[in-house]
Input
Amino acid sequence: MDGNDGGDGGEGGPGGGIYNSGNLVLQDSQVEFNVTGTGGLGGTGSAAGDGGNGGSGGAIHNINFLTLIQTNVSGNATGNGGPGGATSNSTAGSGGRGGIGGSGGGIYSTSTLKVYQSNITNNHTGNGSSGGSGGSHVGTSSGGDGGDAGGIFSAGTLILEETTVNANTTGSGGFGGFGGDGGNGGGIYVNSGTAGVLDSQINSNITGDGHNGGVLRYYMANGGWGGAGGGIYNHLGVTTLDQVVILGNITGKGGNAGDGGSGGGVYNASSKLTINSSLIQANQTGKGGDVHDYGYPDQNDGKAGGRGGGIYNQGDLLIFNSQIESNRTGDGGDNDESDEDNRCGPGGHGGGIFNQGAAQVTYSQLVNNITGNSGELNGSPGYANEGGSGGGVFNTGELSLEYTDILSNTTGDGGPDMHSGSGGGLCSSGNLYINGAALQNNQVGQIGAGGFGAGAYITDDSTVVMHNTLIAGNHIVSKGRGSGILADTVTLDLSHTTLARNTGGDGSGLHAIDATVGLTNTILVSHTVGITATEASAVSLDYTLWGSASWANGLDFGGSSNITHTHDLIGLPDFLAPDAGDYHIQSGSYALDQGISSFVTTDIDNQLRPNPDTHLPDLGADEY
Output
């Protein structure tokens, strides 16, 4: 019978404790220490069968209506995937793919699930299994992925109120020609459904690691990616988080030459996510996979740390009145190998938020987020890489920031002769609209060849509009350009901007490289150089307060490109408490009533502009 294809292994049985197809209510109950079945072994043949998947729903598998009230779902697990079958053809046969671990370590629901005042804790999904051995011309088949949703998997309607989802984990990927990925959604996985989470905590959940790759057609193939969405993974769903704490969740590490898992707190994949009055804090993405020798040509470098320490978005994201604080992205993969052509992985981008979709952030704060460092050479003759960019936010999509503070964020270190991450507060190569935002005390360039744009790094032919923006106290630690803003190959329109006391590197409040920049109604004070323009930039300023005495710039203008300026004013800005970070102007400011009227009708505090008692607007972000 060896001439035939081997059959796939069977799936493990679902619902380790309960399988519900009716209308079930559990109140004041304990559902603990149940386990679903393991997937079966793939059959042997000239093309061997795939391993079976582990059973879903470690505690409960729901296909109808399930309600939990004051119930604990704890210590349950889904089965591992079954191993792929080995081929009977010693040269060209294909081994079977490893089975996938079962999903929903605590609960797996495809219909309606309501959870009130309950605890979903310490549940675990199964690991992916190993791929089967193939012929000598094929190699080992791919390992299976770890099971998704350590706590809850929902593919229907999910309502979660006053509930804790804590310390759940997803399975790791299995060994294979290509290593399996870690399971996604350490706490919750929403799949093509709707979810409403209110007054709940999603804490200390962890996604699985990607597995190292094996031999495939004479090469070492890449390892799997770390699982994404340490707290929540939202896939093709519509999810609302209201008064939710997402704290201390972690995504998995990449296998060799696989990326670390992204979205330490939340991963939003082609979905709609609304976050209101919530805290996203101290989440972390996984480290990138290390370099490995004998990999596919040009594919064996170390990989990037996971992106989006707090949130990774590739869908539609709305954030209102929320705090994104002290999140971190993973370091790049290390290089421990002897090949001088290998390169370490870069640090993950977007310490607070990584956005490649459409995001609107309003009345919120991004504070003390950090991006990852380059991987380490560890004595290898290869190359290092750059630190992660966008300490607060990294944007490649469409981003709107209104009445939002980006404070004290930091980018990661570069390796020897490599740049640190750029954009301490914000790094953007997509379209960007800012109104009423403060970018203060952000930092780049600690180790390596320096960094760019301590407050903001804006690049890549994008269109950027900024109104009522404060950019102050940002710092480049060593070498670099654009202590406040670096504008590189962009069109930048700034109206009512305060640029003050940005330091380090070239000391420029704004550095333009091949950029078109217009500033109107600006306060530009206390820099080594106020404006630097190079490489065919065109910069124009109209109605500008240049500081005097201790608030004067060392030079107002620098660089080789054309800078035009009209309606200049020199004097003291008279800020309220600048040493404490308060750049509101006072009654003695030379900026009062010195601007030109425009379409900007409010200030950084959303107060009327101009002041109803005057007829002309003030210069800068604040209206007195």
